[in-house]
Amino acid sequence: MTAPIKDVVILGGGTAGWMTAASLIKYAQGKQLNITLIESTDIATVGVGEATIPSIVQFNHQIGLDELEFIKATQATFKLGIQFEQWTQNQQPFFHPFSDYGIPVNGVPFHHYLHKLSQSGFATELSDYSFSSVLARTNRFAQPHPQPATPLADYSYAYHFDAGLYANLLKQHATKQGVVHIDSKIEQVNCQAESGFIESVTLTNGQRVSADLFVDCTGFKGLLIEQALETGYEDWSEWLLCDKAIAVQSELQQQPAPYTRAIAHSNGWQWRIPLQHRMGNGYIYASQFEDDDHAMQNLLGNIEGQPSNQAKQFRFTPGRRKQIWNKNCFAVGLSSGFLEPIESTSISLIQSAIAKLLDFFPDTSFNQHDIAEVNRLHNAELEHVRDFIILHYKLTDRQDSEFWRYCQSMPVPDTLAHKIALFESRGHIIIHESESFEAASWLTMYHAFGVTPKRYDPRADSVEHQVIINNLEQMKRSITQAANQAMTHEQFIAKHCAATR
Predict the structure, then answer these.
(1) For position 434, what pLDDT does the model report?
(2) d(Cα 15, Cα 329) in Å, to the nearest integer?
(3) Are 252 and 275 in contact (CB under 8 A)?
(4) pLDDT band for position 1 (50/70/90)?
(5) pLDDT, tens digit, 9 for 90 and up, residues 430-456
(6) Which terminus of the chain has fewer Cβ atoms in its 10 Å neighbourhood, N or C?
(7) Can you tell me the distance from the alpha carbon of 201 to that of 211, in angstroms, rounded to the nearest whole number?
């Protein structure tokens, strides 16, 4: 006999824990389902994920967070994409936008027409055909129209925010909805002798808290998924060499830009994330090529304004837990694995894990086919994100350090090698099931790093050369005119959602 799940315990708070709690208590409405979150305020959270991708907008809406309340409470700014600096030998920055480029013509993707023109010597700038990119160039921001008059005006946005303030906002929201919060450390995890399922956790005061389903949000240590259940971990450091990070906050020296900056250095890269009240800074690096003292000097010597807190250092192993769901334990956030935040995927991977849990929410039978499908979907998603991140390192032409030279020469996963080869051959962009990044994102990277297809789609020849040029000019003009009508990012925040300092 199977029975519905009645009790869920989330172990660990922070962004992952409270996002999970807010989602589950929303799901529990009208059901006899109790949600308890156990965390110790004595244990600091990593606090990664201050930059996001557009899926966060829908997540907040789904759990019932008001956008203006969220922005003000978390000192948030808007994000149109990521500006990459110093990633190529010529030092030219490039922008990865949350929008498509141009529009398809006669069913042929836009970029094939650019490739056709480039082969005839006609120079074009890809970013001119992305509304997000053009807005970002002049530090402008506008919210997308729900029903844009043209596909050219269709784009998305995300946020930069204080991860600690976001967790606090979610905590208030979730506990108000009925989540039980226990502030305590865990003394022991108790598993059933025969099945190996987690039965309960013992708190430091001796209290036992039982549940049918446990969600592990305990960060890198994976107290449940790894220490109790020994699920195993798949190490991806053969392709992703960066294994350490330093994070520090600093005074805001100028108006916040509507994008994240990712600045390459000799042995890694630096992030700058502008909030309304401060700048978030960090440095991700490969410890086999750079020691900690030099890395700290590198970061502190390349920030604007005075540091406003003590720099935090942490080590990580890039990769994933072999199963995100094992027995009656589901891992969310850092306990399920970690990929460096070069494309701001930390919070989106929390979201997608929660979504899978809700899509396949179990009963007490814990059907193995359900569990296997969730693990398959999650593993595929992580592999696709991994490949996209590896792409940043593999395609660069920087030759100034052993780190970058190794990245260029290293073998890459077959899945990624096939994607690159197919684009080089005919400009085709592969998008698999469970991809986090759309075709425009892959096109951004190929174009920025000089990967040029040998051929373009022959269907592009059905449009006359001059007609293509005229269409491109019209697209570029329309995007530029629309962008120039938008407020500056500073003006938009001041008018609509300025937080109290």
Answers:
(1) 84
(2) 19
(3) yes
(4) low
(5) 999 888 999 999 999 999 999 999 999
(6) N
(7) 9
CA distances from 197 to 138, 194, 229, 278, 326 (A): 55, 8, 8, 45, 9
Q: 281 has which bridge partners?
A: 248, 272
Could you write out the three-class secondary structure of 205-243? CCCEEECCEEEECCHHHCHHHHHHCCCCEEECCCCCCCC
Q: How far is CA 206 from CA 69, 168, 218, 487, in A?
A: 39, 27, 20, 57
On whether the CB atoms of residues 392 and 87 are closer than 8 A, the answer is yes
Angle 346-359/368-394 helices, nearest 10 degrees?
Answer: 160
Phi-psi domain of 433 (left: phi exceeds 0; alpha: psi -120 through 50; beta: other): beta
List the one residue out of 242, 251, 245, 221 whose CA is nearest residue 233: 221
236: pLDDT strictly greater than 90: yes
Tokens matching residue 347: 């919070």
Put simply, whether the predicted model's pTM sits higher than 0.85 gets the answer: yes
Q: What is the pLDDT of residue 41?
A: 86
- C-alpha torsion angle, residues 449, 453, 459, 462 (rounded to 10): 80
Nearest to 457 by CA among 177, 107, 171, 181: 107
Which pLDDT tens digit goes with each residue over 69-83? 999 999 999 999 999
What is the C-alpha to C-alpha distance for residues 237 and 284, in angstroms, rounded to an integer? 14
Residue positions annotated with a catalytic role: 79
Q: What are phi and psi of 363, to 5 degrees?
A: -105, -170
Under DSSP, the state recorded for 51 is: B
* CA dist., res. 300 & res. 308, Å (int): 12
485, two tokens: 């009508």
Averaged pLDDT for residues 341-359: 97
- In tens, the pLDDT along 136-175 reads 999 999 999 888 888 888 899 999 999 999 999 999 999 9
- 286-318, pLDDT tens digit by residue? 999 999 999 999 999 999 989 999 999 999 999
SS3 for 279?
strand
Average pLDDT of the residues of the chain: 95
The whole-angstrom separation of Cα 217 and Cα 214 is 10
Rounded to an integer, what distance in angstroms lies between the CA atom of residue 181 and that of residue 203? 13
Q: Quote the CA–CA distance of 247 and 330 in Å, as a whole number.
A: 28
Q: Could you tell me the two tokens for 32?
A: 């006899």
Cα separation, 412 vs 321, whole angstroms: 20
As given in the structure block, the two tokens for residue 419 are 């994607």
Nearest alpha carbon to residue 275 among 308, 316, 314, 312: 308
3-state secondary structure of 246: strand
| List of E strands, 367-501 | 487-488
CB 358 within 8 A of CB 396: no
* Position 34, amino acid: N
